[in-house]
Amino acid sequence: MRRLITCLLFVTLPLCVQAAEKTEKLLFIGNSFTFFNGGIEHHASQLARYARQSANPLAFRNAFGGETLQGHIQRRNTPDIINMQPWNHVIIQGYSNEPLTDYKRFENAAKTLSEMAANQGAQSHLLITWAYRNRPVMIEKLQDAYLKAARHLGNDAIPAGPAFALALERRPSLNLYSDNKHPNLAGTYLAACVVYQWLFDKPATQSQYTAGLPAELATFLQTVAQDTVIAFRDK
């Protein structure tokens, strides 16, 4: 998983957007969980576009296969990307089991990245990842670790992983994975719905964007995202 897929992705939105409208700049820091299926940032931007909201996001990502947060600081150009311009939101997502193998290093790296973002005037968010397909109970420890770090850092935690768990609880036959770890398109779309609703406080169910998924499935995933975000707002 060490292959470099994309260093930075710029998602363009319609040219008809008026200059007077507010533009939200989003930076996603992560790995293959971030960039699979076109990228969480792409689908979150499309959800906003199809909802015709006034805050039209420009979403970027800095993601490398198999990368940890510490690796982003030590081996990658992530600090330069953060310092490139004033972001509105920086979404920080660790390696799949990173918070569980060395929590202190994970939190310290998240703190460093959050401080870099704050220096650019950005609000930082930790993105809770999902459990492995064959280890569903893993989500409880992941959720606890991300929430603990978020509290210590004064951030919040976007509940993508918990949305996976809720979707599979409601529909056990649903497949959200392309292998044991990575999301398929439905999984990426679900994560994007959670990110969209969390950042913009607008129901994903109000967007007509389906990412090419069957309409019934897209509506189901939008509803799961909405219910997950509502449940997590007070955590």
What does this 3D model show about the protein?
The protein is built from ten helices and five strands, in the order E-H-H-E-H-H-E-H-H-E-H-E-H-H-H. With 235 residues, the chain is of the alpha/beta class. The chain has one domain: SGNH hydrolase (Rossmann fold, 3-Layer(aba) Sandwich). The chain has a five-stranded parallel sheet with strand order 2-1-3-4-5, sandwiched between helices. Helix 7 links the parallel strand 4 (123-127) and strand 5 (156-158). Helix 8 crosses helix 10. The longest helix has 18 residues, at 215-232. The model is unreliable at 1-20 (pLDDT under 50). This is SGNH/GDSL hydrolase family protein.
Q: What's this entry about, in short?
A:
The protein has 10 helices and 5 strands; from the N terminus they run βααβααβααβαβααα. The protein has helices at 32-35, 40-51, 69-74, 78-82, 98-101, 103-119, 138-153, 160-170, 185-200, 215-232; strands at 23-30, 56-63, 89-92, 123-127, 156-158. Keywords: Signal.
The top-level CATH class is Alpha Beta
Major sheet characteristics: 5 strands, parallel
Mean pLDDT score: 91
Helical region count? 10
CATH architecture: 3-Layer(aba) Sandwich
Shape: globular
DSSP strand tally: 5
Roughly how many Å is the radius of gyration?
16 Å
For the record, what is the CATH homologous superfamily label? Answer: SGNH hydrolase
Number of structural domains: 1
Strand order of the largest sheet: 2-1-3-4-5
Task: State the separation between the terminal residues, measured CA to CA.
Answer: 33 Å
Poorly predicted segments:
1-20
Classify the helix fraction into a percent range: 40-55%
β content, as a range? 5-15%
Order of helices and strands: EHHEHHEHHEHEHHH
* CATH topology name: Rossmann fold
**Structural class, judged by helices and strands?**
alpha/beta
